[in-house]
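Work Package 4 report. The design task specified in the project plan requires that, given a folded chain encoded as structure tokens, an amino acid be chosen for each position. We show below one input record used in the internal validation round.
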């Protein structure tokens, strides 16, 4: 049914749902942004556990935002297009966060699993071996 031909009450209900969905998505997007900003600050300060906590909070906000249906029947128009773009940004952010979390978790892995510690241990072994020669 064309937009103009639909009863006003039906159009209003559709636009209310559109606005509610968009506002919920925007809220989760903004929460993600705030949590990532805090995580980055903690990350730069070397507070790895706090950084991980806020990266994980951001991932939860992303999951909530991505759970909203912005691709179903009746999801046409500028607001829905904006919502889909926000979800695309959130998917990319989730990928970046997951990559960073993997790196941070490697940093927290006890010796000898960390690459840097392995390299240091190998250098020590080489030096000891050279001294014995």
């Amino acid at each position: 049914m064309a937009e103009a031909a639909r009863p006003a009450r039906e159009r209003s209900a559709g636009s209310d749902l559109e606005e509610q969905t968009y506002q919920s998505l925007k809220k989760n997007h903004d929460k993600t942004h705030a949590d990532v900003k805090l995580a980055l600050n903690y990350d730069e300060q070397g507070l790895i556990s706090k950084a991980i906590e806020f990266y994980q909070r951001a991932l939860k906000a992303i999951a909530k935002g991505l759970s909203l249906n912005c691709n179903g029947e009746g999801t046409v128009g500028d607001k829905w297009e904006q919502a889909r773009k926000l979800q695309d940004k959130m998917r990319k952010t989730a990928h970046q966060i997951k990559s960073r979390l993997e790196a941070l978790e490697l940093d927290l892995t006890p010796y000898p699993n960390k690459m840097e510690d392995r390299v240091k241990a190998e250098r020590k072994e080489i030096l000891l071996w050279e001294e014995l020669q």
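The CA atoms of residues 17 and 55 lie 30 Å apart. Validation will be extended to a larger panel in the next phase.
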